[in-house]
Automatic annotation (TrEMBL):
It is an enzyme of class 3 (hydrolase). Residues 55-135 form a coiled coil. PANTHER family: ACYL-COENZYME A THIOESTERASE THEM4. Its main location: membrane. The keyword Chloroplast does not apply. This is Acyl-coenzyme A thioesterase THEM4. It comes from Knipowitschia caucasica (Caucasian dwarf goby).
Length: 415
């Protein structure tokens, strides 16, 4: 019986499928170690049953990954397409850029040509002006010494400045020659008469910046000044102390106060005061270099009557109400004129009080007169009145009173 057992087992093994065969073979082998084959099978079944859900979740994950892969592929395609579009746009932009720089080059060339032509035209116009001056002078009554001198001076000035500008000749002798001519032209009101000399002088008294050994004097006429402003300027200037070319001095009640940018720098003790001034600081009313744009004014002081007159022409940068001057700009001018007046009367002062009544608005570009008169001085206090009227005096624009208090230099330092 025992001998037939292996055969029986061998027959059973022959009937089992191969996977069970190996399992059975193992369990049978283990059976020899006393394990129970049924429980083994059950464990395996359990394991197989556990693998089912795992497989399911793996399938789900696999599906998700496949979807993500598809999405990524789609994104890749989209990106590739946009890269192609971008490259196309880049090429177009590069073409446009080169076209633009080409046309810019062309424009620049045209601009340079235009500039050169304009320069030529300016030179020829200057020559024409010079010729015209000569022609005018040919008609002048040469029996009159002053007319002869004026012709000579105007032409001389034109020639010198023309030559200097052309050659950029800033040598001291050129500067001195121009300055000397200008000084004579400016200080001879008698030369302003006859054969449109006013016009000639007003266009010539503008000293070009490169010739200025000193800071620009803003109180001198410039091309932006209106005929009314010029008329008033000539009126007061002709009554000023004057130095003529013959070094004769003419006495007048008025003094024209030069601006010299910051007059303090050139005043007695100004060296110390200039130390506390910032190098970039500019007097508020004289900080725009474009002529006619903001505050155009000149102050005359009457020594005998102890009063000041200011001729003021407000530029377009001072607009307040449309077409009219800003109240703050008017206040600034009143403070400036009365402050200058008080300084001449009482030395170093500061504004302590300023009362203003605005009666009639000032149109932009019009010329007005500020008249500053001394009310009274009381100890350290200088009381000044100021009236702003139209150029012909018919309209009162503004009225003001100002109080200035005398201070010491140390007070100024400590302010
Ligand atoms: C070339 C271009 C010129 C341009 C000019 C421009 C001028 C300016 O804009 S200056 C700038 C604006 N002003 C300032 O910054 C000033 C600032 N204020 C100060 O420094 C001081 O307050 C100052 C000097 C006015 C007075 O101070 P202080 O020196 O201590 O004097 P204090 O004793 O208070 O006053 C002196 C007298 O003035 C009178 N006073 C002072 N302030 C005022 C005032 N606002 N209103 C009326 N009275 C006054 C006092 O009552 C006193 O009178 P009293 O002697 O009869 O008793």
């Amino acid at each position: 019986m025992t001998a037939s057992m292996p055969h029986a087992a061998g027959a059973a093994a022959a009937e089992d499928p191969p996977i069970l065969q190996s399992g059975l073979h193992r369990s049978r082998t283990v059976t020899h170690g006393h394990a129970e084959p049924e429980s083994e099978v059950a464990t395996m079944k359990k394991t197989v049953m556990g693998i089912g859900p795992m497989l399911q979740s793996l399938n789900v994950m696999n599906e998700e990954l496949r979807k993500r892969k598809d999405n990524l592929l789609r994104d890749k395609l989209v990106l590739e397409e946009s890269i192609v579009t971008c490259n196309k746009e880049k090429d177009e932009d590069t073409t446009k850029l080169s076209e633009a720089s080409e046309s810019l080059k062309k424009l620049k060339t045209e601009h340079d040509d235009g500039k050169a032509n304009a320069q030529k035209e300016i030179e020829s116009l200057k020559q024409q002006i010079l010729d015209r001056d000569k022609a005018i002078c040919a008609l002048v009554d040469t029996t009159k010494a002053e007319a002869r001198k004026l012709c000579g001076l105007v032409i001389w000035y034109r020639i010198i400045t023309h030559k200097c500008r052309k050659t950029r000749d800033c040598s001291l002798s050129s500067v001195l020659r121009v300055e000397q001519t200008l000084r004579i032209l400016k200080t001879r009101p008698s030369l302003h008469t006859g054969f449109q000399a006013d016009k000639l002088i007003h266009t010539t008294v503008r000293l070009p910046g490169i010739f200025s050994p000193r800071p620009r004097d803003f109180s001198l006429p410039n091309s932006s000044w209106s005929p009314k402003m010029m008329e008033l300027y000539d009126h007061y200037n002709s009554q000023c102390d004057l130095e003529t070319e013959d070094i004769e001095s003419q006495k007048g009640p008025w003094i024209r106060l030069p601006s010299y940018n910051r007059i303090l720098k050139y005043a007695k003790g100004g060296v110390y005061l200039s130390k506390i001034m910032q190098s970039k600081a500019r007097l508020f009313t004289r900080n725009v270099y474009q002529v006619g744009a903001s505050f155009e004014y000149v102050i005359f002081l009457n020594k005998e009557e102890k009063k000041c007159v200011c001729l003021f022409q407000a530029g377009h940068l001072l607009e307040g109400p449309p077409g009219h001057v800003h109240g703050g700009a008017i206040a600034t001018m009143i403070d400036t004129v009365t402050g200058t007046h008080a300084t001449f009367l009482s030395g170093l002062v500061v504004t302590a009080n300023l009362n203003i009544n605005y009666r009639n608005a000032i149109p932009l570009g019009s010329t007005v007169i500020l008249e500053s008169t001394l009310d009274h001085i009381e100890g350290r206090k200088t009381h000044i009145n100021c009236k702003v009227t139209s150029a012909d005096g018919s309209k009162v624009h503004t009225e003001a009173t100002a109080l200035f208090v005398s201070i010491s230099v140390s007070h100024l330092m400590g302010m």
